[in-house]
Amino acid sequence: MAALGWLTPRRRSATARSVLAGEASAEAARKSSQELEDLAPAPDTPAAEPEFPVLGDEKAAAFFDLDNTVMQGASLFHFGRGLYKRKFFETRDLARFAWQQAWFRLAGSEDPEHMQDAQNSALSIVKGHRVAELTIIGEEIYDEYMAERIWPGTRALAQAHLDAGQKVWLVTAAPVEIAQVIARRLGLTGALGTVAESVDGVYTGKLVGEPLHGPAKAEAVRALAAAEGLDLSRCAAYSDSHNDIPMLSLVGHPYAINPDSKLRKHARSMDWRLRDYRTARKAAKVGLPAAAGVGAVAGGTAAAIALHRRRR
């Protein structure tokens, strides 16, 4: 207060009071501002997802559907293209395969009737051929038609599980020999698939049991988990189809990948995670095979479906 010594006592008293009031006001303002900051809601920040897959969790594994989840399109169709190229069947049979593939790509979902027809076609084609022969051909067909159709995003998900030290299985209605070739080429653990009957290493044209589809997939995963000592609540499953809801519902970490409309709706209602690796262009595009003859059939089929829809 020495700076105020030149003031008269009355002025000194008034000035001191002003200084004191100013300091008090400033202090009150500072406290008020701090209190407002303390009361203000924290800025919205997305909650960090827990790290998944969990490194070193040996009780966990991942189960991946194949068609349109790991691979664009239907694996059985691509296999059929390879067999046609090798003169296993005639053009009229190819037309049936092309129709089924076009439907699958346009509808975006599996149709049980079409799948059964495709299975019957494949069984009749391979009947009398040796299992070893089809396995060797399957390796060639993978390089010719399938490798370039693997979804990079789904492949990365599978690799994340492998890097975490977990086993990764394909679970598909496709013939187990095809599924095993694809799993091996992708570096996965193995594959569950539909089993075709063989006697002395030769296909009979019949199935062992039923196609691995829908609820059958869930039962296969349940059985494999029991044999492997897995905890399904710590496992993950990935699929594009509502037909695989039974399998997805088994695990603690279900993912809808490139989902059809029914699965997308169900996944949202259940708060499942969704991943879609299709661009708008790819989603709308009908997968026309590279071979000119096959492409003409598939293109004609797509046009017929579009025309039929327009007339309804």
Can you put this structure into words, describing what you see?
- The chain is of the alpha/beta class and 312 residues long.
- It contains twelve helices and eight strands.
- The chain has helices at 9-39, 75-85, 91-107, 112-126, 131-146, 152-163, 176-185, 215-228, 245-248, 261-270, 280-284, 292-311, and strands spanning 61-64, 167-175, 190-194, 196-199, 202-207, 236-239, 253-257, 273-275.
- A six-stranded parallel beta sheet has the order 3-2-1-6-7-8, with helices on both faces. Strands 4-5 form a two-stranded antiparallel ribbon.
- α7 links the parallel β2 (167-175) and β3.
- α3 packs across α12.
- The chain is globular and about 50 Å long.
- The N and C termini lie far apart (96 Å).
Question: Top keywords for this entry?
Answer:
single chain; 312 residues; alpha/beta; 6-stranded parallel β-sheet; two-stranded antiparallel sheet; 12 helices; 8 strands; 13% strand; globular; disordered N terminus; disordered C terminus; hydrolase activity; HAD-like_sf; HAD_hydro_SerB1; transmembrane helix; transmembrane
